[in-house]
Write a structure and sequence with these properties.
Blueprint lengths: L5 E4 L2 E4 L2 E7 L12 E5 L5 H25 L19 H24 L21 H15 L3 H16 L13 H24 L46 H14 L6 H18 L9 H14 L4 H21 L26 H8 L2 H4 L13 H12 L3 H5 L6 E4 L2 E9 L14 E4 L2 H5 L2 H10 L7 H5 L4 H18 L12 H12 L4 H8 L21 H10 L13
Antiparallel strand pairs: 1-2, 2-3, 3-4, 5-6, 6-7
């Protein structure tokens, strides 16, 4: 093991037992140096001596990188501060810096709220019942961070959060180095400071306190001696901007898509053709909008501009915008993982979905009667337009209403997913499954749904036999016509149904969609007095409730198939006798 490359400390490794100093050139300075990393032999096997040399090199290269940024016009206000030599600091100085770090976190959060704070919060007896809250996305991120930090070891924190801490203390001209004897203890103090901040954040969000925290400038420390004070602030350094060299890497988003497919296959995960088609469309649209082809030149601002363009120019729903932006961010994450680019996009790329965005209502009894007395269901009428999807215009609404299945589950039905239940051979069921490359939303959605007997009289088994005789994977001719593309068929039919509902059926109730059949089915179950276990088993809702455990992978409680069949067969649908069998 002595000859292996073993990490010892930050920027310090051993090779063949000899200590080496290795440090990457920052991404924003790559074109300012003729090399991508600094690599020097420290010519010693003594790790203590190597750490001392590495510390000196850290300071030297911090200085050289800061000077390079000034020459390139990249200097920030922090770069004008003198670089502080912290080699002589004692623990009390590092402990003070950790308190400054915690105070800075609190101050940044307070500034986010300050413009909306009412004067009553500053009264002798503060009133904080209406203290401004941060966005839902910010709250979720903070709570998730708290859970992560509580589970971290100090070593993990030092590895994963050192960049975050460095981003703050660099404002003072301080550079962190793992070669410092106080490094681990300082990281522990910073972890404690973050957890304290998150506790205050929670108090502020709950309007239970969190006022009167110290401003970071009130924390005394050795860095204050190095900070220029007013008056007497020196004039800003005049920096002439140099031309920025290209950051192209010779790769495109199409290359990233190829790499993404390779990664999926290596992980033995599915690569769906319809998903790839959507990804390709997103690549073309993004490239056309941004005018950038090389991934090395794609910046966060390009992705944000594309996101905003989707909302303003195309008026897409927020979920659709996030899906399209998600393709681009996933491809750039693939590039980052492959080492083609160095900088992640960062957070807050996606738009937050309003709480009422997904609000949908069930069809009323009157609306169901209007739907199922349409000639499609009573006279064998069929629209011939492509989006009507042939026989689906009759079967999909009917199955959705009588069984509570969603459109994608119905579209994926095939001869192998209609069969008797193994415990009850006389009970024919729809099997909602992910077998045969089918997709289900969660594990809970995999279920057996007894088939309403009237569907057999209306010719359902004829469809099954025709599909089986033709060797078709799915029941519907639209799936064959559109290369088994569930997303495309689902999109076509949703568009057709929205148009039919508005023009032919004149249904104008707010919040009614194809999904309203599922809600109507659930309301019918509730109205018939069925227990929650029956409803969850038929709907594919996990134990604990959809609203409380959204996205859960737990299965619903097992319910006797006889009870489920009784529930399905017993619902009273007034429209059902009027529906006629079609050829």
């Amino acid at each position: 093991m002595a000859d292996d490359d073993v990490p010892v400390a930050n920027h310090l490794t051993t090779r063949n037992g000899v200590c080496q100093y290795v440090r990457r050139v920052p991404e924003d300075l790559r074109d300012a140096f003729s090399f991508a990393r600094v690599q020097l032999s420290l010519k010693t096997r003594d790790q203590r001596a190597a750490r001392e040399k590495a510390l000196a090199l850290d300071l030297e290269w911090d200085r050289r990188f800061a000077e390079a940024r000034q020459r390139r016009g990249l200097a920030s206000a922090a770069d004008h501060l003198p670089s502080i030599d912290a080699t002589g600091w004692g623990w009390e100085d590092w402990e003070a810096l950790s308190r400054w770090f915690g105070a800075s976190l609190l101050e940044d959060d307070w500034r986010e709220r300050l413009r909306q704070v009412r004067g009553s919060a500053f009264a002798p007896v503060p009133e904080i019942s209406d203290l401004p809250r941060r966005s839902n996305a910010d709250v979720k991120e903070h709570f998730a961070r708290e859970r992560t930090l509580r589970a971290m070891t100090i070593g993990e924190y030092a590895t994963e959060r050192s960049g975050f801490v460095q981003g703050y203390v660099r404002r003072l001209g301080v550079s962190l180095s793992r070669t410092s004897q106080h490094h681990d203890r300082f990281m522990a103090a910073c972890l404690e400071a973050e957890l304290t901040y998150l506790d205050v954040f929670r108090q502020r969000e709950s309007r239970l306190g969190g006022l009167g925290t110290a401003h970071p400038d009130t924390i005394a420390g050795p860095w204050r001696k190095a900070r220029p004070e007013q008056p007497g602030m020196p004039e800003p350094i005049a920096v002439q901007k140099a031309s920025v060299a290209s950051t192209a890497v010779g790769k495109t988003l199409a290359d990233c898509a190829t790499k993404w497919c390779e990664n999926r296959r290596l992980a033995k995960k599915q690569v769906r053709p319809e998903y790839l088609r959507e990804m390709e469309h997103a690549i073309l649209a993004f490239t056309a909008h941004s005018g950038v082809k090389d991934i090395g030149e794609i910046k966060r601002k390009h992705v944000l501009a594309y996101r905003d363009h989707l909302g303003s120019a195309n008026n897409y729903a927020i979920q659709t915008i996030n899906k399209k932006v998600g393709f681009i961010s996933a491809l750039l994450a693939t590039a980052l993982n492959a080492g083609w680019v160095e900088t992640p996009l960062g957070k807050e790329i996606y738009l937050e979905i309003p709480e009422d965005e997904d609000f949908r209502e069930p069809y009323s009894d009157a609306e169901l009667k209007r739907i199922f007395t349409h000639p499609i269901f009573t006279e064998g009428k069929r629209f011939t337009k492509v989006k009507a999807c042939e026989e689906l215009q009759f079967w999909l609404p009917l199955i959705a209403c009588l069984h509570g299945m969603i459109s994608s589950e119905i579209i994926q039905l095939g001869p192998d997913s209609i069969m008797p239940h193994p415990d009850a051979p006389d009970t024919l069921c729809f099997v909602v499954t992910n077998a045969g490359d089918r997709r289900v939303k969660t594990l809970a959605r995999r279920r057996w749904v007894p088939i309403r007997r009237e569907l057999l009289d209306l010719g359902l088994l004829d469809l099954v036999e025709a599909a089986r005789a033709g060797g078709r994977e799915f029941l519907w001719s639209a799936m064959t016509r559109h290369d088994h593309d569930v997303t495309r068929v689902s999109g076509y039919f949703s568009s057709f149904w929205a148009d039919l509902s508005r023009k032919d059926l004149t249904i104008e109730s707010e919040g009614t969609t194809l999904y309203s059949f599922r809600h109507a089915f659930q309301d019918a179950l509730s109205g018939a007095g069925h227990a929650d276990e029956v409803k969850k088993a038929l709907m594919g809702h996990a134990e604990g409730g959809m609203t409380k455990r959204y996205g859960t992978k737990r299965k619903p409680r097992v319910v006797n198939i006889g009870d489920l069949d009784e529930a399905v067969q017993g619902l009273d649908w007034a429209f059902l006798p009027a529906i006629r069998r079609t050829s």
